[in-house]
């Protein structure tokens, strides 16, 4: 069995970007990271993060904001970046993902504004009151190898499910058996199915990979992301991650999803918040 | 006494922008909104929000992200906007604030990426588990008219203090008398000093107007914002606002500040998160 490491995994191959000219990258949106027909927003974010990591002088995303404009489809895409400012410790840039309509016209999918830095150069101080989420042990959570009646699968063809190893806290998986808790909570263990360890880039995928909290709130429709901001706070240790997502306010057809990602050494490695629309099933 | 309403207040005059050509605006950063020498980040955000409100077809900010690049100074400035996408219910744009160095060269201060919509057109549904912050009654909080020993003033010349009516929860004002609580919390009542009622634009100021939570954590240095994202969730009712800010994770020299703003009718009207650097006093 081949050793899957950071750099040679399916995630790395599918987020590869090829520099065409300075700041402009060719990419191919893989059909492997779709939910029903939509390309996953976290996968797109990782792809954009990779292009920005090449375009900017600093290696690691510190704060990344994406506005989702139109639905991406598997196939070719172009990423255009702009360096906004280069400082000693941080640099800021933008990235735009475009695809092409049948008539050749450009359609923008995603606009990103991000500040990068060097996570390895930060001091070691930690003063946190945040606590890792209370998630049952891995083997007690519900995943792809659970019994059919307990397996939390999103109906429809979800290719991304084969690439992720998500094991949900049973307390937040009621939606899968028609018994949502009513609470705006989603928690679980997260890994890439091929065993690739997490890094700052894959954390951009992780924050948008669990089922929407709206499912546990009893909503059955689509929950498209309007905007997603992720802060990468620490380089993750090897091993499984824990993700906890909370929604406190659903109002006027919009809801926020706050995600925290914790690594195997109990460090808070990422915080994200997204604004999403709750679209009722027609 | 003149009636101060939305449109004729000092806040409105100081956030005025003049369209020079389509999408390009002249502005003047007022010295009235400075903390020591720095122009307040929330005031800058409101100014940018006003330009975007003119450039985009929708009136209200729904999600606004700003990356703070260099320190703004009072004086002339130019805002350049770009319309990224125009949809039926939402539109997305960018804005860049620049000032000019002595040699005439441009220095970018702030880059913004935002999605606008129409808060008045949203459905009335609310399903929230969020609760208004527990803040003592207005008259028991500490403000500009409190006794000198209790008045929570940031040392140095803070012109902005004359324009805001902030009354801090005594439980989060210990820093002002050398006894910080050690907790990453800051809470208080917020209004504009001249009595102008809140609107979505002034909420962009409100989320960055309280003293930094770092003061209550016992840090004495500067806490410059790297990135600030604000979601405007509802049009605020007239009357005083309540603001609660929480920091859970200070690590590697960075901390997040999560703010919630509640209006006089107990509606959660804004949520924001910023990533800031903790710079120790030299």
UniProtKB/TrEMBL annotation, chains A, B:
Residue ranges constituting the Acyl-CoA thioesterase-like C-terminal domain according to the UniProt record: 153-276
Residue intervals of the Acyl-CoA thioesterase-like N-terminal HotDog domain: 30-116
Record SUPFAM superfamilies: Thioesterase/thiol ester dehydrase-isomerase
Superkingdom field: Bacteria
Chain segments annotated as transmembrane: none
Pfam families (UniProt xref): 4HBT_3, 4HBT_3C
PANTHER family: CHROMOSOME 23, WHOLE GENOME SHOTGUN SEQUENCE, THIOESTERASE DOMAIN-CONTAINING PROTEIN
Protein name per its UniProtKB record: Thioesterase family protein
């Amino acid at each position: 069995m081949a050793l899957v490491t950071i750099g040679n995994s399916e995630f790395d191959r599918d987020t590869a970007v090829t520099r065409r000219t300075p700041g402009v990258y060719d990419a191919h949106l893989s059909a492997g990271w779709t939910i029903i027909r939509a390309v996953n927003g976290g996968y797109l974010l990782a792809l954009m993060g990779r292009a920005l990591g090449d375009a900017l002088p600093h290696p690691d995303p510190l704060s990344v904001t994406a506005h989702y404009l139109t639905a991406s489809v598997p196939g070719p895409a172009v990423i255009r970046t702009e360096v906004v400012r280069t400082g000693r410790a941080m640099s800021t840039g933008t990235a735009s993902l475009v695809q092409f309509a049948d008539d050749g016209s450009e359609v923008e999918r995603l606009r990103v504004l991000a500040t990068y830095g060097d996570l390895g150069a930060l001091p070691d101080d930690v003063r946190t009151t945040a606590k890792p989420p209370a998630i049952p042990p891995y083997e007690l959570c519900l995943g792809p190898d659970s019994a059919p009646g307990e397996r939390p699968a999103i109906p429809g063809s979800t290719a991304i499910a084969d690439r992720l190893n998500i094991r949900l806290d049973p307390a937040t998986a009621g939606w899968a058996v028609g018994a949502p808790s009513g609470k705006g909570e989603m928690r679980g263990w997260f890994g890439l199915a091929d065993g690739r360890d997490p890094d700052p880039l894959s954390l951009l995928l992780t924050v948008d990979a669990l089922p929407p909290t709206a499912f546990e709130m009893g909503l059955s429709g689509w929950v498209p992301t309007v905007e997603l901001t992720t802060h990468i706070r620490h380089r993750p240790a090897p091993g499984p991650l824990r993700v906890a997502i909370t929604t406190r306010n659903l109002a006027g057809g919009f809801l926020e999803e706050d995600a925290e990602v914790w690594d195997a050494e109990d460090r808070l490695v990422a915080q994200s918040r997204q604004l999403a629309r709750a679209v009722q099933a027609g």
